[in-house]
Structure formats: structure tokens, C-alpha cells
Amino acid sequence: MLRDIRRIISLAWPVLIGQLAVVAFGVIDTAMVARYTATDLAALALGGSIYITVYVGMMGVLVALSPIAAQLYGAHRHAEIGEEVRQALWLAAGLSVPGMALLLHPHILLHIADAKPMLEGRTVAYLQILALGLPAALAFRIYSSLSNAIARPRIVMMIQLIGLALKIPLNFIFIYGSGRLGISLVPELGSAGCALATTLINWVSCLLGLFLMQRHSLLRQFGIYRKFSWPQWPRIRALLKLGIPMGLGYLIEVTAFTFMAIFIARFGATVLAGHQIAANLGTVLYMLPMSLGIATATLVAQALGARDFAAARRLGRRGISFAVALAMCISLLVWTSRTSLIAAYTPNPLIARAAAPLFVFLTFYHVFDAMQVSTIFVLRAYKVAVVPTVIYAVALWGVGLGGGYALGFDTFGITPRYLLGASGFWFANSLSLGLAAAGLMLYLRWISACSADPVPRTQAK
Which domain of life is it from (predicted)? Predict the structure, then answer.
């Protein structure tokens, strides 16, 4: 057992550091634009929510490469990996077209948001610059998925850390202009400067990834650039068959949390600020079980490719158990140090008072979150995505958002006082994650137990 846990940890820690580096991009943007103008900060928030929705949905489709390549790697079918990567690059190019079109012409979405002219103008500029980096971001996701599939995530981590190191100086130059450095070359761009910095970093990361797919000794054996391949519909269809429900799953997660914040905003700025503290901490905590889930899924998929189904079941079970046990320990630590954590976020006693009751739900929320995310990644290793996405939709949208709305706003007039407002949303969201985790674990048990040959069977699901 300890050997399996060590293998999972050795793959998970580079993924965790890389994901934290990506999360830090948003923190840096917010901190630096907040010192520019309030309008630019609002444009960053509005534009960022639109961009992340577009990017996450498309990124989720391309992540389907990871379980496919991992199973091929486990089966030692290396030449087929090269072809899958080439087809994934064609798919990324195809997805970039509607993605860029939406980001270059976001006026319909901004009209729904009823943005004022000045805010709309800066948000459009922000999104149009990010549109130029979308193809690079999607191409780098292919390199990242391939590296995870063959259990080599450390170079991805290094590229993400390089991007983080570039982010602060590029942000400074493009947000405030180069005039502050005594060189009048770059004008002040405000929030658009963040987008320009991110776009440049996306292209640097993309070019490094494409270069390493040719030069890295382990990746070179796949012959990705050995020949040119036109799009092959059967392979692209297989990617879409797995990737579309995976992308929808990512979107359900993102939108469930986004709309939760939108509804909580109706209770006032103080309540929303308290929610933001709990939500921000929950996002950071989420990175650990997600990283463990990615690592576990890699090992499970490789075992499936090698047709060692007993090892796949064992690794999946131990990876999920380890993620949940670790989440329980972290939740206990968060609960015992909640006063200090809230104080570190804000000195405002009103906001602290609004955040405090949410930490009760955050402790359960994190455990259920660890359980569901580690389980869904293992299911993806089996190339199963449709049923988990349905479970997500019913649990996170139906129970989480619907139940949260009913409790938070006391729709039926029976909500206890301690579940009114943001607490009702957090209670329902925690319950929804628990239900999702239970459904996913039962489905995983059925898939792993009754499928003697999971590769062909689950491809049809």
C-alpha cells in the first residue's frame, strides 16, 4: 500500500505546484489592477469570468487526450500516441475558431451583464487580447495532458513556474506603462495589460511545449513530428466522445460556484465578502485532492492499458482513500485555526462575522470535494464521462444551486435561521458534493467490478 501511495505522491506534487502557480496568476492580476482603477478591476472580474468559462469548456475537451494516451502508454503502443497527439492538435485548432470568435465579439454576453459603456469597452479590450492567446493555451494543454499521461509532470510544472516568474514584471510594464521605469515605450493599458501579459506567457509556454515534444528523449519516441497527418474523423470523434462530457463536467463545476456567488451577492457586499473568503480558501484546498486525482488517474489508466485490471482497481481505491483521509486532516486543521485564517484575510469584524459560520460547512465541503474529484478522475481513466457528467448536473445544479436558492432565500418558508443567506447555499453545496461523491463511487465500483475488459466497453458509454 505504501508503495502505491508513494507513486501517487511523486506524481501529484509537481501537478499541485503547477496548479498553484496557475491560481497565482489570478491573484497577481487582481492585486496589481486593484491599485490602478476600480473600472479596470471590474473589467478584470467580468472579463475573467467570461474567459474562464470559454477556456475551461474547451480545455476539458482536450483533457480527454490524457486517459487515451495513458492507456496506450501502458499497452506500449507508442506510435499510436503520436497520432493521437496530432489529432488533438487539429482538434485544438478547430476549437480555437469558435472560442476566438466569442472572445473577439463578446458584446452579446456583455449586453446580458448590462455593463456600462466604459466598463464594456475595457472588458472588450481585455477579452480581445486574450483571444489571441487562446490557441496557444489550448495547445499547451495538449502537452500538459500528454506529460501527465506518461507520468512526467515535472517539466510542465517548471514551465508554469517560468510563466509565474514572468507574470509580475510583464504585468507591471503593461498595466502601468514603461514610463515608471523611465522608458516611454509602452503606454498604460490597465486591465488590458494583464491580458497582454497572459497572452505572451501562453505563447511562450506553448512554444516550449511544442519544442519539448520534439526534443525531449521520452516524448521523441512517440514520433509526433515524424509525419504529417490530416484530420482523421474516427480519432477526433473518439476524443470528442470522451472530451465533450468531460468539458461539460468542468463547466458544471465552474458555473455552479459562479452562480452561487451571483445569488449570494443579493444579500449585500458584507455577506458576499464573507463568502469570498471561504470560497477562496476552498479553491486553494481543492488543488491538493485534484492533483492526487490526476496522479491516481494516470496510474490507473496505465494499468488498464497493460490489462492489469486488479492493479487498476487497487490503485484507484487507494488513491481515493488517501485523498479523503488527507482532506479530513486538513479540514480538522482548518476548523481549529478558523479564527486565525479569517483574521489573515480581513481585519473587518463585520466581514469576519459573515465568514465564520461558513467555515462549519467548508470543513465538510472539502472532504466531499476530495472524494468526488478523486473519484471522477479515476472514472475518466476508465474512459467514462457521460454518466459522471449527469451525476454532476443533478447534484451540483439541482441540489446545490436549486437547494441553496430555496434554503438561502427561504422559498418555502421553512428554512431554519442558521441556514438563511449564504449558509443555506454552502449547506446545499456541501450536500450536493456528498451526493455526487456517493453516486460517482457507486458507479466506479460497478465499472471496475463488472467490466472484464473496460477499454472497449467504456468507450461506448
Answer: Bacteria
**Contact (CB, 8 A) for 369 and 334:** no
d(CA 24, CA 249): 23
Distance of alpha carbon 253 from alpha carbon 442, whole angstroms:
20
- CA geometry: angle 160, 146, 297, nearest 5 deg: 95
> Could you tell me if residue 236 is inside a domain?
no
Contact indicator for 20, 287 with CB cutoff of 8 Å: yes
Q: Is 413 left (phi over 0), alpha (psi -120 to 50) or beta?
A: left
In 3D, which of 362, 439, 445, 441 has the Cα closest to residue 393? 439
- 145's CB contacts (< 8 A; 6+ apart) are 62, 63, 65, 66, 69, 88
Alpha carbons 416 and 402: distance in angstroms, whole number: 17
Positive or negative, the Cα torsion across 324, 325, 330, 336?
Answer: positive
Domain count, the chain: 2
What is the per-residue DSSP string for 129-146?
Answer: HHHHHHHHHHHHHHHHHH
Q: What SS3 state is found at 15?
A: helix
At 275-293, the pLDDT tens digits run 878 888 888 899 999 999 9
Angle at 379 between CA 377 and CA 384, to 5 degrees: 120
Q: What is the pLDDT of residues 54-71, one digit of tens each?
A: 898 899 899 999 999 999
d(CA 136, CA 202): 6
- Residues across the chain: 461
- Note whether residue 6 is domain-resident: no
What domain range is 70 assigned to?
11-231
Residue 42's nearest CA partner among 198, 191, 258, 176 is 191
Residue 4 within a domain: no
Of 198, 209, 223, nearest to 145 by C-alpha is 209
Radius of gyration from C-alpha coordinates of the chain: 22
DSSP 374-407: HHHHHHHHTT--HHHHHHHIIIIIIIIIIHHHHH
Q: Which three cell numbers stand for residue 253?
A: 463545476
Q: 364 Cβ partners below 8 Å, 6+ apart?
A: 331, 430, 434
432 and 347 in a common domain: yes
Q: Is residue 306 located within the same domain as residue 192?
A: no
What's the predicted TM-score (pTM) here?
Answer: 0.86
